[in-house]
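User: Predict the complex.
Assistant: Input components as received:
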Amino acid sequence: MLRHCALLLTLLFSTSVFSSSLEITIITSKAEDRVNVGKSFAGITVKPHRPVIRAVELALFESATLFETLGIQANIRQLDLSPENDLQQQLKDIPPSSLIILDLPLDTMEQVAPLTDQMKLVAFNVRHSESRLRDSLCLDNLFHTIPSDRMYFDALGQFLVHRGWRKVLVVQGTSKLDSERAISLVESLEKFGASIVDQRTFTLSHHPDDRDKNRPDFLTGGVSYDVVAVIDSQKDYGRYLQYSTRSARPVVGDVGLTPTSWHFSLERYGAPQLNERYRQFKKNEILGSQVAMTDAEFAAWSAVKLISNSLNSRQVGANLDLASVLQDPASQVDLYKGTRGSIRQWNHQLRQPILLSTSEAVIAVAPMPKFLHPKHYVDTLGLDETQSECQLSRN
Amino acid sequence: MNKGNSRRLARAHTRCYLRLSIQAILLFSLTFSIQAFSATVVISNERSGDLVFMNESGETTDVVKLCGRPRGMAQLKSSNTLYIACSDDGEVIEFDLKAKQPGRIFADLPGAMSIAIHDSTNRLIITNEGSAKATVLDIPTGKVLATLSTGHEPDGVALTVDGGLIFVASENAGLVHVFDGMSYEPVKNIITNLRPRRLAVRDKELWVSSEMGSRVEIFDTTTLQKIDEIIFAPRGFRSEQLTPVDILFDSTQKTAFVALGSANHVVIVDAVTREIQKYILVGRRPWGLGLSPDGKRLFVLNGLSDDVTIIDIKTKRPVRTSRTGLVPHSVEIVN
């Protein structure tokens, strides 16, 4: 059954005369496990996971002055789907020309995105980095503001090659997701000239027969390498590898030095101001000093800001035909990462710099120096136009 | 010794003499220039919290510890007084350049960032970065005349020559807020390209640097409409790598200088024809700009290499790079 939450926010002043409205619908799933998500064994939180609504509210909070100037009223509503019931039926009451934020688990998102596309609703994938989705969900009205795995891993590959750490030992988990991501990682590393000295699989089993796959010193022994790259989507095992490798070498990937789209400690490009606003803009819900947007939240924030920032640069006033705003190659967004973001028109991926960070600091911002692209500064990250199966711009 | 050898030797001698005489001329001109330039260069350094004093040749003469994160500065015309925004302390310091000591302190100015001064009416306009406003301060009494509401992250601030209009750039909102300079009522919000940073007024033109839009936009101060824009494209760069911040006009207002941030260049622009004259390579992330009172030397602050590049305006070439404090932000050059 469709159940709209009450309007959560009306951000603009009642005295203004509104010429148009921006309706934002955040679609979530009732079936999603909201208790154990992002947690490892024994309830240890290894990946912070929050609904993206706070980031969407932040983007509207920031856009309030501009929207007032343009006479735009913005509203957020939430649609909590029951994935076992008829999805089409549950989507039908979404206001026309809404902006859709898909805060959904992967399988539900893969079902919902084609439906919102048929309804000509502009929707954003803000959670799923699987590179294959950029091809399998090649839809006119779907945009991806979360980076693809290839963008993350290309950033890591550039970093390693820039540092001269070219001999990489890849250590990965056994899940399907880990295998897929490891393929992506290897492609990225080899693209920039790093070599894989070995590719090994870890297990969580502590049985003595499995020790070559469980004890970090055995798992990382017997070969010479500059760096260990870990693929461990669940962060069950990988976080124990640092300081335990056979050779004294850095650990990168899902632990150690990690490619991310956002970080609490970024100290340049106005990022401290954005982080402070995120923590403090809701006066009754102030967050702690090291809490920052997750990559999914940052992607949701980017989606709304992409709309408001593009209204800036187009200078056409309150033109809220969202599809035409986004399909304009001049659409752009200030990402607080030193280089503006924009849409790759061929597969609707947001191009953006990628941060390489430890838990404490941003060590580098990719693209790394000397990795040059003929057209766009950041297009050395991720699959380029000629490599993409999705060719929306040729339509 | 054969003929060829002696000829080569003679040529070498000539080269040697030439080099010596060039060195002599350089030495002479350097000595001369040190004597000729008498102005003092004052640099605020965000991270080391101090002011670095230099002579015009780029030699540090003094370092004065000042406050938490000193950033924007403005000089009261023909006086020894400099106003300095201390962002982390939330105050503006009235600094006596002769005594090299702070005088009055204007407190309760959270996130004070950039300062504009209007001499004839004795007012300071200060942007408050963290709190989405700008403050108008009466210099003689130190009283707050008005608090102006802006979008988030207000940075650049400027006034028309007659003080009739106040302009404040909001980086986050992508707006330049226009206020009446007397009643302080909002007049208009000008929509700009991404991340407007610094403002400069030239005759009837308002120049706005768009850091993430990689351009300078020019608006008419009477109609408040956009009249033109300057897009930067030094060789070897993609558009999005150009992140302009500070804009400075020379005293004739015929030449503009723009610091290009991540592109590590400063650009000289013919302000009348709006044509680019030259891109000059400087240090890392140039933002702050200052011009010597005689207009002969441009000082470019490189925020990420902690130094200042001094450019000779006549030859359009850098002549020296000198160490500053940590993260230099603004420069004022005073006689």
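The interface with chain A takes residues 129-130, 150-153, 170-175, 189, 191-195, 212-214, 226, 238, 240-241, 243, 262 of chain B (CB under 8 Å).
Let me know if you want any component modeled separately.
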